[in-house]
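Late entry, zinc ion complex.
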Amino acid sequence: MLVGSLDGVRISAAVAERGPEYRCPECKGLLILRKGRKVVHHFAHKPPTSCSWAKGETKAHLEAKQLVADALARRSIRAQLEFVVDTLPGDRRADVMAWSPKGRQIAFELQHTPIGLDEIERRAFSYARVGIAQIWIPFLGSSVWANGRSRYNGDWFVERYSPRPFERWVHGFNGQDGMWMYDPKDKAFWLGRLAGHQIYVEESTWYSEGGDENYSGGFHRYSKRYKELTLEGPYEAESLLVKVKPRRAYTKNGYNWPAGRVAHLVPS
Ligand SMILES: [Zn+2]
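Prediction complete; structure with ligand written out below:
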């Protein structure tokens, strides 16, 4: 985690000094401040602990949260790491919460590990209910680079990409604006779009009992499993602006999207 509590006041590991007793804002347990070189400065629970906030967190996730918060701060946009939203189910922390100049909240959810559809929908509906705009940013896995190729216009193209259910959800949530994704290796953002992946069904002919000639195949159909993924980028966090738009509620193929405010990134 990136934020601890010192005498009841939130403090970021980036600015915390060694010495005082930092505590977990959730369980009030003692924290260890880790200011190493390999991993972004952070706090860890002093074992033993049963706190839900002490669950394994990846270096990439810590790094991404700090990166987004720093980029916002450089633009003089108020932002807080691991901000607690009391109405959220489960882990009540938004990875990063930002405030528009008019004071409206925008939650950044940086999704390093897959999240279940039920869980993402619960969180999304919860944000929407209280009027918090939201942006979900899935992390790109290395298979995207191994299985894709660069296109003439500089886009990265993966012809057979098997999106995880939550990625399909995020893509649907964002609609025409595409889905921003994060590459933890280069610490860069890409604008991703999914499109139908076509499979050719071979033509075949057979004869039925009455001597009728039958044909099938000879056409393209869309794959259920695979999509084409096109990535536009890379963009550094500093080069992206935040824009908020409303969207309507929608349900399709078992996916549910709330009416609410969606945040998008826009290259500046
Ligand atoms: Zn704790």
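The longest strand covers residues 219-235. Will revisit in the morning.
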